[in-house]
Amino acid sequence: MEDFFLNIVYKNKSVKFKVVNPEAPLSTLMSNLRHAIGVDGKLIFDFPSIDDSGAPLDYFFGKEDPEVHEIRVLRPRIGKADQTLADYNIVNGSTIYLIPDPFPG
Could you tell me which residues are beta bridge partners of residue 72? Predict the structure, then answer.
């Protein structure tokens, strides 16, 4: 099986990230990304747990809608079904975005 990479963009930083299991649920991929270590031994991305106003943050993947050039959030679950990259037509080499999402406490 060929290696599967995503270009992940967050806060003006773009990282080519190897996805070990592209069929894993999005929630698993997000968890793996939160703990991913770069070649320098540091976390690839800094995930603040609160925003500037003190609201707790959650994170989602997003994909640009080519027709309207807006980032659409990829929900990790729809109903009771875990969503995967394939559910959003994300293929090897796709660019996805990390979107911080404050939620009311």
Answer: 63
